[in-house]
Amino acid sequence: MDQLQRLLTIMAQLRDPETGCPWDIKQSFASIAPYTLEEAYEVQDAIDREDWGDLRGELGDLLLQVVFHARMAEEQELFDFEDVAQSIADKLTRRHPHVFGDSTVQDDAELRRVWEDQKAAEREAKTQDLSLMAGVANNLPALLRAVKLQKRAARAGFDWGEVGPVIAKIREELDELEVEIQAGASQQRQQDELGDILFACANLARHLDIDPEQAARGTNSKFERRFRYLETKAAEAGAELSSFDLEQQEAWWVEAKTHEEPKA
User: Fold this and answer.
1) Measured CA distances, 235 to 85, 223, 238, 245 (Å)
2) Residue 26's Cα: distance from chain center in Å?
3) Which of 75, 100, 129, 251 has its CA 20 to 30 A from that of 148?
């Protein structure tokens, strides 16, 4: 028995109504979905840490999620794992006519256009919604979804051709938020303006060809690393970090920055 078939058999046994695991038996698509997202993020984390042994395990955890969903679908006579594998194999073949067909592409730009054209054709076949906005999943991380929406809009020419106006838009949105704050506007109004700032920042990331989620993850890691340095300095001084005033904490923060490797 190959290992994939072994995994499918194990999943079927776990879901057996008579002899399976009570926890696995009671799960549904909705209850498992959060675990699917969590495992995808853990794959990303292993890659960021370049921990390839951990990545192997995390990919296995992610594969389990696919197998789990496919098993539940099979039980409801919706589809099975073979259908899932066939679906993605067919999609890859269809979206790569330059590899599996007679088409040719000249460069990355044309390759991207062919890919997007294939995706658009697939959307039209599945839904009557012909908007360029159709099919961008609502549950994507907000910044990632913003970039995808902006890319769709750019296909219709609704986009700035250079970075300057994007930066100006961020400044404009910041000013608008400041006005709302000074006017004592409701939290909802302030939230709306803050959302506009984040959307504009995602647009800047797109123009710079930077993944905003990756940029945010990098900054989060940097903040955590520097804050841990503050905690270490406080411990060396024999006290909790909170017992030191902001001036001392800021001094250690600057010190933490100087201890980091210079950027390339």
Assistant:
1) 54, 18, 5, 15
2) 28
3) 100
Phi, psi angles (nearest 5°) of residue 238? 80, 30
Residue 230's CB: how many other CB atoms inside 10 A? 19
Instruction: Please give the structure tokens belonging to residue 179.
Output: 């006005």
Please give the torsion angle defined by the CA atoms of residues 153, 154, 159 and 162, in that order, rounded to the nearest 10 degrees: 150
Q: Specify the pLDDT at position 262.
A: 60
- What residue has token string 């899932």? 84
State the amino acid at position 151 in one-letter form. Answer: K
Question: What would the mean pLDDT of 213-242 be, rounded to a whole number?
Answer: 94
What's the full length of the chain, in residues? 264
Q: Are 241 and 234 in contact (CB under 8 A)?
A: yes
In order, the DSSP letters of 97-118 are HHHHSS----SHHHHHHHHHHH
Cα(74)–Cα(153) distance, rounded to whole angstroms? Answer: 38
Q: For residues 140 and 80, give the distance between their C-alpha atoms in angstroms, rounded to a whole number.
A: 25
C-beta neighbour count of 204 within 10 angstroms: 15
Going by pLDDT thresholds of 50, 70 and 90, the confidence category of residue 111 is confident
Tell me the C-alpha distance between 227 and 241, whole Å.
10
Please list the alpha-helical segments (H only) found in 96-211.
97-100, 108-126, 142-155, 164-182, 187-207
Per the structure block, which two tokens stand in for 178? 């400041």
- 3-state DSSP helix/strand/coil % of the chain, to nearest 5: 75, 0, 25
Residue type, 192: D
Tell me how far apart the alpha carbons of residues 169 and 101 are, in angstroms, rounded to a whole number: 44
d(CA 166, CA 160): 7
DSSP 261: P
pLDDT of amino acid 105: 76
